[in-house]
Amino acid sequence: MHDDFNKELQKELDIVYKYLIKKGIHKVDAEDAVQETACKFLIYYPTIKSTKIRSWLIRVALNYHLDQCRKQNKLDFIIDEAVIQSDTKEEPELEFLQKERAQDLKYALGKLKPLYQELLLLKYYSELSYEEISHIIGKKISYVKTNLFRARKKLLKIYKEVTTDDTTT
After folding, report:
1. CATH number of the domain encompassing residue 43
2. Is this prediction's pTM over 0.90?
3. C-alpha dihedral over 131, 154, 30, 11, to 10 degrees?
4. Which of 19, 61, 85, 95 has the lowest CB atom count within 10 Å?
5. Which of 55, 72, 89 is the last residue of a domain?
6. Quick one: pLDDT band at residue 144, thresholds 50, 70, 90?
């Protein structure tokens, strides 16, 4: 039973780590945040009321990272190209187009306000439910749905502008 608990915790911490990396947090900082999160989880596990452990872990890791950034005065949330993955290794032309699209999308994501970036990453990269996202950001589900809708709409608008500008120049 103890081994099962450790394996499940490690699996969840791996997901948290990958999420932090996808947010553009440096590897060392992500490792520190996950380690601190694991310690807090083991200390507070008996008192955690949330049934969504992954949400709790992500929230603690993000809060830890934000605290560290505030202390060092260096917020470094960067949307990483790894958000968009390419399976076009066998066709160079398709790979080039995919990389170009990834750059355009990265640029468009970077133009969004941080809340929209966060919501899109939580929904589409981490594949969290609206309920889990609402728990992580501390807002109602209706707020999450509304702002995800706005984020997708704004992202599409910026992406179209970027790709239209590319083809006209």
Report:
1. 1.10.1740
2. no
3. 40
4. 85
5. 72
6. very high
